UniProtKB/TrEMBL annotation:
Database matches in Pfam families: COPIIcoated_ERV (PF07970), ERGIC_N (PF13850)
Superkingdom of origin: Eukaryota
InterPro entries from the UniProt entry: Erv, Erv_C, Erv_N
Annotated keywords: Membrane, Transmembrane, Transmembrane helix
Transmembrane parts of this sequence: 423-446
Region spans: Disordered: 1-63
Record's protein name: Uncharacterized protein
Domain spans labelled Endoplasmic reticulum vesicle transporter N-terminal: 74-166
Lipid bilayer topology: Multi-pass membrane protein
UniProt subcellular location: Membrane
Polar residues compositional bias, start-end: 14-30, 48-57
Similarity remark: Belongs to the ERGIC family.
Presence of keyword Protein transport: no
Amino acid sequence: MIPGLEYEPPHGYNTASPSVQSVEISPQHQSDYHHGQQLHRRRPHANGHSQYNSYNDNDGGDGKYAKKLSAKTVKKLDFFPKLERDYEVRTERGGQATLVGYVIMLVLILAEFWTWRGLNGESLEHIVVDTSLGKRMRVNLNITFPNLHCDDLHLDVIDVAGDSQLDLSDTLFKHRLNLDGTLRSKAKIATEANIKADEDKKKQEALSKDIPADYCGPCYGADEKEGDCCNTCDDVMERYKKKRWNENAVQPLAEQCIREGKGKNEPKRMSNGEGCNLSGHFTVNRVAGNFHIAMGEGVDRDGRHIHQFLPEDRMNFNASHVVHELIFMDEEYGDMVIAGVPGETSMNSVSKVVTEDTGTTGLFQYFIKVVPTKYKGKSGGTLHEKVEHHDTQNAVLPGVFFVYEIYPFAVEVTKNKVPFMHLLIRIMATVGGVFTIMGWIDSALYSREKKSSR
């Protein structure tokens, strides 16, 4: 007899009672009826009757076994074995080790953050050969002479390659100032200009009485187009300046200048009672040279650059000045402007004043070393400057000289960028390492306590 099992007779077999609770089956009968028949487990139903569930030999047994095997395999891969709460042992020393671990983690995480922040944006400088020597560079200049008339200010540029630019005026602007440094009113300047224009007109009319009405004076090769006329000496001189030719060579020969009494290239007398602000820009070759504002007008004669002035006016040339801005920059990248080097002397806001104690005039020389600087990852470069200056009172040629030297090497600056993911990885490694080491220390101390307590 098998407890809990009932025998279901074949179809047509009569039983004595449908409510048989158990049937005694001999081993022989059991073997006869076991195969090919269905066995049912009886369990109580809610209504008191019996409920039967059939067990079939082919009821998904293989699928359940495969799932159990897969679950066991996954459990073996668990790196984080768990203990029942009843088997966990918590000690005071373990809590102390945990607190120490948290403090260490916090300190190390903050250190990693500050290190990442310091490295992110750090500038790395490398020396490279400057391959842009054939290009020109632009110079921005803004300088004020409180005691010099604008008519006496002439900016000349010369370099070691033999190139010279005399009395630059195309991209430089002169602003007349009062002696107190304020701008002269436009109305007053216009009135003076009109008076001078009337005087010049009357003078020209007196000189042109003997000139035919259809007169067209020659420009001596400086014609802008065929048929251009240069009827006055100023017209000839202006055309020569535009072509950057030596106007002083043609002045004694031009008929217009001879007729107007300007054939002799004599220095003019200085004007007094005003100051002048000179601002604008100009371009120079990327070679060593200088630009200066000195007494008199500069001319080139026999391959030399000289200045013409009246000796008696030398003491009237007050070279006091204020440099508001001086910037060297790449002509190609006009929007990239950075002047000066941190910690070094910049030319901006440099002020030099000539006093009665030091003399009424003087020579000021600024020696500028220009270092081409390229920023990797940007579309342009800049030119940094380092400045030294010397001044000599009562010099032979009073003025302000800016002597510059271009380094043949360039500094390439690369901004170091560390991704945020690197910081996250280092923080995770720090946290994991601290947990592991503190776990080793706690385990070693706990094992030692257990051994000592035995």
